[in-house]
Amino acid sequence: MNDAMPMAMALALSGLAGLALGAFFFGGLWWTVRKLVDVTRPALWVFASLWLRMGIAMVGFYFVAQGHWERLVACLLGFVVARLLVSLLTRAPEAHQPRDQKEPRHAP
């Protein structure tokens, strides 16, 4: 994205890049959490995943912004939208219990 590109096009592309970065970041977080039950060193997985995801996201933000705060804000907006989308798509199904059923207050 150079300075000759129209501002609206640059902002749209920055938002799409933020969407892709957010999908990678939060999708990777979801994948890491699901993988934790199968690994022998979960702390290593969590920290390695965090550093990798954060490093790629930060480098992506840097290259998308190119010194323009407007592009950075558009990228951040796309990143936040991706967070919402990933959390909606990876939500666990709710239990098939009626909500009005009350739990007993005593042990059986």
Secondary structure layout:
Elements: H1 7-35, H2 42-65, H3 69-89
Helix pairs in contact: 1-2, 1-3, 2-3
Largest sheet, in brief, is: none
Kindly name the structural category. Answer: mainly alpha
Termini Cα gap: 67 Å
The figure for the number of domains is 1
Strand residues, percent: under 5%
Estimated radius of gyration: 20 Å
* SSE succession: HHH
Number of helices: 3
Tell me the number of strands.
0
Large-scale geometry: elongated
Average predicted confidence as pLDDT: 88
Helix content: 55-70%
Indicate the low-confidence ranges by residue numbers.
none
Can you offer a commentary on this structure?
The protein has one domain. The protein is elongated, with a radius of gyration of 20 Å. α1 runs antiparallel to α2, α1 packs parallel to α3 and α2 packs antiparallel against α3 (69-89). Helices cover 69% and strands 0% of the residues. With 108 residues, it is an all-alpha fold. The chain has helices at 7-35, 42-65, 69-89. The N and C termini lie far apart (67 Å).
Which features characterize this protein?
single chain; mainly alpha; 69% helix
Short précis:
Helix content is 69%, strand content 0%. The protein has 108 residues and is an all-alpha fold. It has one domain (14-89).
